[in-house]
């Protein structure tokens, strides 16, 4: 399974906004995937808005830096095929980070743990 940026942060912090179903799936998974696009997204938001505005994302980034990886997650690198996969997605959302995560999930045939219903429109199986 691939974990959306915010859901990964909510799991690591922890934050009560993570759904009980999403948390249960994450606890049962051996090594859920977090896209490198999520690390990029969180750092972009931190640079633009600062730590106070992004809350749990800032804490998650601090833990990534301290641990080297966002344990218990495995980082999914961006592959050239993922980048090309973005162009095949429906034009329903302009967020480049969500589009990359969706392209990676579709290409690998894995569900996405996310509160964001936009992943449904991309044809991803969404766990929430």
Overview of this structure, please?
The protein has helices at residues 5-12, 20-28, 36-54, 56-67, 80-86, 96-108, 118-121; strands at residues 2-3, 33-35, 74-76, 112-113, 126-127. By secondary structure, the protein is of the alpha/beta class. It has a single domain, classed as Rossmann fold (3-Layer(aba) Sandwich), CATH 3.40.50. α1 (5-12) crosses α4, α3 (36-54) packs antiparallel against α6 (96-108) and α5 packs across α6. The longest helix has 19 residues, at 36-54. The protein is globular. The mean pLDDT is 92.
State the shape.
globular
Low-confidence spans: pLDDT under 50, at least 5 residues? none
Q: What structural class do helix, strand and pairing data support?
A: alpha/beta
Report the sheet-strand fraction: 5-15%
Order of helices and strands: EHHEHHEHHEHE
Q: Which sequence of strands runs across the widest sheet? A: 3-2-1-4-5
How many distinct folded domains?
1
Arithmetic mean pLDDT: 92
Number of strands: 5
Enumerate how many helices there are, as a single number: 7
For the record, what is the CATH homologous superfamily label?
Answer: 5'-nuclease
Largest sheet: 5 strands, parallel
CATH class reads Alpha Beta
């Amino acid at each position: 399974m691939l974990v959306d940026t915010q859901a990964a942060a909510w799991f690591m912090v922890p934050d009560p906004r993570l759904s009980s179903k999403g948390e249960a799936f994450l606890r049962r998974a051996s090594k859920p995937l977090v896209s490198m696009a999520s690390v990029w997204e969180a750092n972009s938001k931190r640079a633009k808005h600062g730590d106070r505005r992004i809350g749990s994302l800032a804490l998650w980034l601090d833990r990534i830096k301290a641990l080297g990886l966002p344990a218990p997650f495995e980082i999914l690198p961006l592959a050239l095929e993922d980048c090309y996969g973005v162009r095949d997605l429906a034009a329903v959302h302009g967020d480049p980070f969500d589009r990359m995560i969706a392209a990676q999930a579709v290409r690998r045939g894995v569900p996405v743990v996310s509160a964001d219903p936009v992943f449904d429109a991309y044809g991803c199986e969404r766990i929430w």
